[in-house]
Protein 1
Amino acid sequence: MTWLAWRQLRTQTLVAAALLAALAILLVLTGPNLRHYADTVVNTCTARHDCIAVTANFHKLAHLANPISLLVIVVPILLGVFWGAPLVARELEAGTYRLAWTQSVTRVRWILVRLVAVTLVAVAITGLLSLVVTWWQSPVDRLNAGLFNSFEARDVVPVAYVAFCVALGALIGALVRRTIAAMAATLGCFVLVRYVVQQYVYPNLLAPLQLTRHFRAPPVNGNNSLIKPPNPADWVQSDQVIAPSGKVLGQYGGIGPHGTFGFNVSNNGSAVFRGVGRCPNRIATPPGHIRPQHLTPAQAHFLQAEIQRCVDSFHLREVLTYQPTSHYWPLQWSEAGIFGALAVALSAACIWWVRRRLP
Amino acid sequence: MTELALRAEGLGKRYRRHWALESCDLHVPRGHVVGLVGPNGAGKSTLLQLAAGLLEPTAGSIEVLGAHPACDSAQLGRVGFVAQDASLYAWLSVEDHLRLGAHCNASWDAAAAHARLAELGLSPRHRAGRLSGGQRAQLSLTIALAKRPDLLLLDEPVASLDPLARREFLGLLMSTVAGADVSIVLSSHLVSDLERVCDYLVVLVDSHVRVAGEIEDLVAGHHRLIGPRQSGHAAPANQTVIAASETDRQRVLVVRSDGPVVEPGWEIESVSLEDVVLAYMGQGAVLQSSLPSTPTAAP
């Protein structure tokens, strides 16, 4: 039976392995160069004050980064759709199950061996792909401080996705009994499950950490000063402004769902903190001639103090919720564990269905 | 040899609302070449697939060689199955199909399989998808035979073949199994296919087994009675009327009886196998129930 399982898998395995080898050669040839540039030129740019130019140059060198990341997301889906879905469906459609199931191999053994063979090959292909891409992308990820940005396209998670997608495809194929329909349904179901897990499960897998501070008005002159997570690569889940009552007044370090910040000031100086309430103090016009957008430092300082007095009167807190980089691996393993467990459950369901319910 | 090749008790198979096979009782001893005959859609394929373990019964039970079909690999190895339209992997070569058989069966007669292919003139490197219908059937049969089964099931093996290929296939089948201790069940909707090779017959009509038995007994146990149309009694008393037809002056009955038929006023003729099958396959059942007096079965 192992022979048949391998014979049915041989051509596609060789094609996939050849494509993977070609990609690996490309990455191994370009990777060290990229790494060297990141370690030397980009690392020392602050001293030479040419960071913007150097970073742009680096991204030009790494122009393959996005398509390659996409590849790691797409390959598990392709393998599930093209290898998993036809596994049972094509046998039923072509009638060849009548040959396969009347040899001296029980149906359970037949489906078990075939499922294991396809899953092993798909896992090996995806694992090697993820390994080489993760290595190649590491200088890019470091520069982007985006450890969590490409979470689903690095390390072990893609391997669990492919095991899940293959099992999903096999089960749907056994249920639907039509190859093309099963392929489409596999694609749809996989995307749906990934979406649900990503939206509702993944953010709650590990309790995030929080940073809290007294809410400060953004400077009237200059850059916004939101709280920063301890490590720029940390994954900020939310940055909320919270009233003493516990009511959430705004997101993104501001007021309201879009994180804005502003006042309605009337001619006599009485002011309303938009989205919060009426200020107890008047916000007076700064002394001197005022040119819009060009306050003098003294004028800005005066206005900043007036605004902050109003803001302080509401005793607001800004709370930053984030996953630190130290949570990266626990999250990787949890996500992989979830999809791995789903893969095992769907495979078991597929074996049961083939044994009990087919044809 | 006491175990039966095929034993069915109240066997039934339902697809959604439709019963493909219903309350089927069969006791077929080993050592026969069994013809399974009936019109298209009578349930022949369903019965064979139940016996091969490809289908699970909805009602009743079936035993093949004394065990539940496909219950383990030993049982699977004892039963060879040639599917309708000879299901093969189109992209695998002839040689690969033999390897498949060799790797998937504990008892595999590789030498015999290769010899058979050579005899048939099938090139081992041909892809199965390129073979003709006759060649596909032959390859399927070769795989089934190389398992050295105790029971060989063939589902409409010659339906897609031209008359010459038909004759060749059945001839080769018979010469291969001659002398071997193997029981065979093969189905067809044509009696003429089965007449030359079978010694046991099962007639399946409308999902029901109409009659089953050794062909000699069937032919000897049925007669054609020809009598006047206006005869006083509708049917002879100690016989089962299988089919009846009337012309202007004559009434023709096909009857089943266990003993000799002596019927005054009726002309008695012996029947061919085809007559028997046609009597069961035709509107026999309908006519029988519409006869004025209900015939009673012979004791």
Note: The first strand of chain B starts at residue 4 and ends at 15.
Protein 2
Amino acid sequence: MITYVAQRLLAIAFILFVMSVLIFGITQVLPGNVAYMIAGQFATPDVVAAIENKLGLHDPIFVQYWRWASGVLRGDLGQSLIMERPVGPLIQEAMARSAILAGVAFICVAVLGIVLGVVAAVRKDSATDNAISVFTYLGISVPEFFWGIVLILVFARYLNWLPSGGIGDPAFGLPVDPRYLILPAITLTFALIAHVSRLTRSSMLEAMRSNYVRFARAKGLAESLVVRRHALRNALLPTITVLAIDVGFLIGGIVVVETVFSYPGLGRLLLFAIERHDLPLIQASILIIATIYCTANLIADILYAYFNPKIRYGRPAH
Amino acid sequence: MHWFSRSIIAGMLLTAPTWSNSAIAQGTLRVAFGSSLNTLDPAKTKIGEEYIQNFLIYSGVTEIDRDGKLKPDLAESWTASDDVKTWTFKLRKGVKFHHGREVDAEDVKATIERVIDKATGSVARVNFEIIDKIEVVDPQTIKFELKLPYAGFAEILSDRQARVVPRDKLDTIGQEPIGTGPFKFKSYKPGDRVELVKNPDYYVPGTPKLDAITFRIMPESAAQVTALETGEVDLVWNLPLESIERFQKNSNVTVDSVATSTWDGVIMNAAHKPFDDVRVRRAIALALDKKALVEAALYGHGSVTHTMISPTHPYYNKDIAITGPDIAGAKKLLAEAGHANGFKTTIFVPSGRPPRERVGITVKELLKPVGIEVDVQRVPWDKFVKDIEGKEAFYVDGFFSRPTIDTSIYPWYHSKGSWNTVLWNYKNEAMDKVLDAARGAKSDDERAKLYKEFQALAVNEPAGVVPYVLNHVNAFRKNVKAFQSSPMMWLDLRQTTVQ
Amino acid sequence: MAAPLIDQDGLEAPLAGVTRPRLPRKLVVGGVIIGILVVLAALAPWIAPYRFDEMSLLKRLKPPSAAHWFGTDEFGRDVLSRTLLGARLSLLMGIGATLLSLVIGVPLGLLAGYRRGRFDEVLMRTMDVLLSFPPIMLGLLILAVTQPALWKAIIAIGIVYVPPIVRITRSVTLDLVNEEFIQAAHVRGDSTRYILFSEILPNAWPPIAVEASLRITFAILLGAALSFVGMGAQPPSSDWGLMVSEARPFVDSAPWIALAPGLAMCLTVIGINLLGDGLRETLDPRMRSQRGA
């Protein structure tokens, strides 16, 4: 098990390195535009050149990469070119907000997904089962931005129950007002709930048909006890790994959802940086996001390995 | 969790607005605007939201009030030499920056030099290039020597990028703005909000009345509107014109509209055929129904005009009437120019600037009767600035008010003007003479006469068609008192209070 | 991002492979929906009542009526026509990007699975790196450095989906490589290209096809998301994601502008999902029965 984790960590480190090169390399196609954007419309070529020099945009690419990468490793993510302030705190704040949103959504997906999956399994083929199936199917068939807009229309405009975007003032000790989290979290949850509920349902069904459950029933245990104690525990194993994979999907969805709800998280920050060709901000944002994604996948792999006896206990001695 | 406890929590959450209101200090105004700020350094500001901060955190040497009149600000008085080439300003004593130091002439010198410096990249640089020498006579007196006579120099110093910054804090001014204005900078969270607090030492006694201002960044116009309706914000800056109707029947909200000199124009680039022929340009000017353009593009919230001189301006030429479209006249001119059957052309509009897009579409409709077939092409704003402005023949563009009448007109209509060469390549000797003379005009009457002549020239030999000047619209709730929109489009909140 | 569908039950039909399987209902329904969509998209320029950029300020923001079944948008353009024409763009995006990923990914996967060794190692590491980006991030990264445009988005999405295609192709190839007929061809001295494309591929295509059908859905959704945030199709095109994005300021005064493309997207994705599901159900037992032979 330990060797497995060590191997994976090494692989991740390598991947992150290659990723950083890739990110840096791709964004370096941009330099002229950045200087031009800073200088403004009337900039003469000499002003643009002066700015390019100041930013070191004419140095060989390896030098620039090394400057950036060594900075990142030291914790210095560079200076935003357009806003003239360090990138680090910008990303930190944005990340905190995204993390809260993602966290809330994740919990909802996990809890609701499992609950729906269990209910669907226990009431297999009933109207409830079908209803849950259709409901979750809708969630993954339609893009988040559409659902988000529908939710805004209904809950923020017609009913006026919830705010339609932004993050409000800090409240209850959190950096965001919880009411502003509700609609975006629902949107994200809806998009992902199908995975978890479906997988839970099928592994529950398998578990409930398995031998030990039949045995427990034969022993005369109450159905609910059977469900809870035996079937559920085993059914959850693959679900846990799916949840870890869902973090990846969450990250993907967060860019869109943050746009729909004007939620100032990391996804919106990235789009903001792209619009303004703010190189350091783009590079740092994508690097951070990709690192989080990698880490989530790593955790998923480790969890899967943990629950998979073959890997956990190593190969049997011959 | 028990359903009872769940509903209690839900109830608490849903009534939270009242909670958070009491947590904010009384007298905090909450404003919504649409864009994040790129910088808080006045010299580098480029967008409306940034200009607002310039006005609140900083002061200028002079300022322009709501009625368009020039007033003293940091300077208590000024004189100009007879040839209007040398200007001397006397600064007030005892005005302090937010970090405690008194402002003096050296600060003003540093501020202006900074704007002129190419490395700063200020868009106002061209306005200050007429300065030859800046001399600090004593800590309260500063003298400017200009390269040419310029009657409007005092107005230029009121401009957004020339707000006075402390010379000892120039490195950090972009992130930690320190000025002499009515409000002090507290914090800025990109994408979220800007927070300002009252400057208790502001030199105008009794102001500001507010304790603090919070600017909420809401890029979605629909979100701004909702926030205003629910009371989440007290004021929306630059309300999108299509939302105005919504508030007409709302007794809690006042929509305050003011005429500005911000204008949109149908640009006809004289470097391209057939727009090099002034008869073609005149024909198009005759064919366009300006009132229809105001209705279509601005939902009626604008004023028709000849040029970017607003109809409320004292120099506006009332003698020239704005007539309805003259299709027959337009056709005749086109025929004279050799286009009896009209011609085909493309008009480019920037997507992301809805009023200008609507202008483009309406122009298409309005030119049909004279036989000009127009294809409307929408181009994303970045690409528009790069590939269309100055390069294409026919497009719609727009510009903010400038502080002085000269800076509003000269760059566009004078053959050497900085905007002229990148926009429509207009060359008219008579025009050049009039504009140069106006710059040196010593009396108000003389200037008025010359600018009226300018307008006549601009109508008879048009560079492009300036159909209207826009209104600037703010909307605020009834708990906001003593607020009026400003034609410069910034927020003067010194007298404002909120209940 | 929306995600793959997972099997309803974990059960095998007890008599699979023995009786001749009827076409599953999903395949039929999905096929019908997609069929209609493709036809509409293909015929759109002719059946659309108006041009997609026909603007008229007098008719702006009108609710659905006889003249305009889905109303008009802020420029007076007919929403229905734009949606129909948007179908072409979405299908183009989905199919184009998937084709690109197949064209690149399948040969690479085949080669890697057959050859193994250094090439396989390097390729899989590269794929791992690409897979370390959330799909939309990789797309944004590629598009960030250039003026966004629809065709660039298609290329970006195609690249993003190369790794899954490579993976599945490689995995199927690995399974088949040990089969006798492949070994025989190798011994015979057949060229690699022949073996890959004429022996392996014909047997490997079912799971690849299933994966590809999933990818089309993803590509359409990812494309719509990219257009929604402004990095895909540009105005005045009537891509569905872009339409929804442009409809946002009017969502309460004129909700139909966003509704039409939204519903269209729903139907499309549901159709493709059903089709893909149905495809998998038909192909799976067949594959199994083939192997058993």
Note: The two ends of chain B are 40 Å apart (CA to CA).
